Amino acid sequence: MIPTLDDAHATIRRGLLITALALAGVGAVIVMALWMTPTEVRQGLAQKIFYLHAPSAWAGLLAFSLTGITGGLYLWLRDPRLDLFSEASAEVGLVFGVIVLTTGPIWGKPIWGTWWTWDARLTLTLFLFFLFVGYMALRNALSDPAERARFSAVVGILGLLLVPFVHLSVYMFRTLHPQPVLLKPSAPSMDPRMLRTLLTSVGVFTLLYIGFVTTRYGLSLRREARGVADGD
Amino acid sequence: MTETLRLAVVLAAKDLRVERRSRTALVSAVVFAALVLVIFNFARDPATVTAKMLAPSVLWVTFTFASMLTFNRAFSLEKENAAIDGLLLSPMPRGALFLGKYLANLAFVGTVQAVTLPLFVLFFNVGLGQALGGLLLTIVLATIGFVAIGTVFSAMVVRTRFADLMLPMLLLPFLVPPVMGAVAVTTRLLSGRPLSEQMAWLRFLGVYDVVFLTICAMVFPAIFDE
Fold first, then answer.
1. How close B20 comes to chain A (CA, Å)?
2. Count of CB atoms within 10 A of residue A191's CB?
3. Nearest chain A Cα to B202, which residue?
4. What digits encode the pLDDT tens for the residues B112-127?
5. A26 touches chain B (CB under 8 A)
6. Which phi and psi (to 5°) does residue A180 adopt?
7. CA–centroid distance for B176 within its chain
8. Contact state of A158 with B219 under an 8 Å Cβ cutoff
9. Which of B152, B160, B174 sits opposite A141 (nearest CB)?
10. B111: buried, middle or exposed (CB in 10 Å: 19+, 13-18, 0-12)?
11. Residue pairs spanning A and B at CB distance below 8 A
12. Of A141, A166, A168, which is closest to B161 when you measure between CB atoms?
């Protein structure tokens, strides 16, 4: 199954289109967050960063899970496209990881009084970030594509399994993160307008993830197609 | 199954025999562990931080760093003269290859720990007394799982150019949950609390071992099939 340059360019174009839509969506989310959502009573304006922070965390977690899952599928089906997807997803996940790890402390300093604390979810995010970095480093250190695909799939699967352990172990140390406001058993404890902005943002960031991954995947296809054309 | 086990023991015995004749990996790992203990002793202000306050962390940092040194040995040994090809061509199942390397690694890490623990007691003036049994159990539980992951990763990184840098980068995130549990249990055991209070952490370590030993044995063959 060899991709053609035309396929690759079509995928890249599709990815860029979705990304452009999603970036317009990010603009809309900022407008919604600043002018159409009430300001939180105790945290003031600092709370607005939450509408970018939490959805990025969601996109990062999505990226990470899909990297691990497609890695597992690769070991089973051995379709090189799955590996290209894993790679794209890991790179994009790294970007969202950086967003989470920078927006978090910016909010944490005025609200918690500290840039960083070893709370459960902070530690987990940092770990995901390190795992992604290790994953990419391993990929870059290997030259044989089949070997790279198998090895990174193994790291992806093990990394995915590590997540619950990191979460549980840090939790056993106690946590001071705001308790879950959305995915908890009782009704969400949030102003409906805040909830609307948050859910819009989650949708937008999911779209952004799809756009980035599609573009990146298309770039990999193009590299493969050119490699074939060059007789590489 | 018994055949796999037999082959694994043969392979592990081969690794240990090579080590007995060269004595490179084990001696350097043990000396490294002793040096880390010494450095830690001077990396604190004795007037403000007592040796006992730092002892559990020192023990586990030393264990993990010294263990990591022994992992790359397992497959870099086979890389010389392309010995790995011989192993892969032999009728030995991949499961036996994993188990053999795992057992050898376990023996190495166990030896390093067996030497480090008395040195630790000596340098840090820790009275183990009642805590010894519980501490040994904690050491075993915290080691089983991460040695399995180390075995898998070392088989992969040996194919890269920067194996010695790559292994810690991949492996250290996986060490944090067991080390966190082990340090928590060790701290309480050393301050005279009974082992029965630490069941939550011990169970956690046990689950970690079962999950990662199983999954490592499952994914290991994928590293070598071409």
1. 31
2. 12
3. A169
4. 999 999 998 888 888 7
5. no
6. -50, 130
7. 13
8. yes
9. B160
10. middle
11. 82
12. A141
Are A134 and B157 within 8 A, CB to CB? no
Cβ neighbours of residue A141 under 8 Å, at least 6 residues apart?
A: B157, B160, B161, B162, B166
pTM for this entry: 0.86
Q: Would you state the pLDDT for residue A184?
A: 52
Asked whether the beta carbons of B11 and B101 are under 8 A apart, the reply is yes
Q: What is the pLDDT of residues B133-154, one digit of tens each?
A: 899 999 999 999 999 999 999 9
CA distances from B41 to B35, B44, B49, B56, B210 (A): 10, 6, 10, 13, 35
Q: Average of pLDDT values for A200-215?
A: 93
Tokens of A215: 């573009």
* Contact residues for A28 (Cβ-Cβ < 8 A; gap 6+): A200, A204
**Looking at the partner chain, which of A147, A150, A166 has a beta carbon nearest the beta carbon of B177?**
A166
Q: Does A163 touch chain B (CB under 8 A)?
A: no
Res. A192 pLDDT band, cuts 50 70 90: confident
Which one is predicted more confidently, A5 or B25? A5
Interatomic CA distance for residues A76 and A79, integer angstroms = 9
Q: Which residue of B147, B152, B153, B160 is the best one to mutate when testing the A interface, meaning the one whose CB has the most A CBs within 10 A?
A: B160
Q: Which residue of B has its CA nearest to A149?
A: B223
**Residue A10 CA: distances (Å) to CA of A202, A227, A230, B13:** 27, 18, 20, 56
